[in-house]
């Protein structure tokens, strides 16, 4: 079992930055791939970024590539999402998720989810 708690969301102006964090419980955190997803009002949940258990492999949605960076610290049981050059279309609830083995982009492949943190980008 893995429990996930996101933090770091908030209101920011376009062009600004935010850093989201996801704190995990469980001694086997280092064996889990982690992902960030987001869901805007009236839209389906979409993939943002994912990172392998080792931190070596990282994947990004085209819409955030070059602006967002995913990282993890297995010793601290955390995964982070650094978001720069934020745009109003980045406004959504952001969720972190965990799954065993490989990092993937399909939300249905993740087994554990946090409660989400709201990110609002004003124009």
Account of the protein in words:
The structure is a single chain. 0% of the residues lie in helices and 50% in strands. With 123 residues, the chain is mainly beta. The strands form two sheets. Strands 2, 4, 5, 6, 9, 10 and 11 form a seven-stranded mixed β-sheet that branches. Strands 1-3-8-7 form a four-stranded antiparallel β-sheet, with no helix packed on it. The radius of gyration is 13 Å and the shape is globular. The N and C termini lie far apart (40 Å). The model has no long low-confidence stretch (mean pLDDT 95).
Tell me the distance between the termini. 40 Å
Number of helices: 0
Measured by DSSP, the beta-strand proportion falls in: over 45%
Structural class, please? mainly beta
Q: Segments where pLDDT lies below 50 for 5+ residues?
A: none
Which term fits the overall shape? Answer: globular
Number of strands: 11
């Amino acid at each position: 079992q893995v429990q996930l708690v996101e933090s770091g969301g908030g209101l920011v102006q376009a062009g600004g930055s935010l850093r989201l964090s996801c704190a995990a419980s469980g001694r086997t955190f280092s064996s889990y791939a982690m992902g960030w997803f987001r869901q805007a009002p009236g839209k389906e949940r979409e993939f943002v970024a994912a990172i392998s258990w080792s931190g070596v492999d990282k994947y990004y949605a085209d819409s955030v590539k070059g602006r967002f960076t995913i990282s993890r610290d297995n010793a601290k049981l955390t995964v982070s999402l650094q978001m720069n050059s934020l745009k109003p279309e980045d406004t959504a609830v952001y969720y972190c998720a965990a799954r065993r083995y490989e990092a993937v982009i399909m939300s249905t492949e993740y087994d554990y989810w946090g409660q989400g943190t709201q990110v609002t980008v004003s124009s």
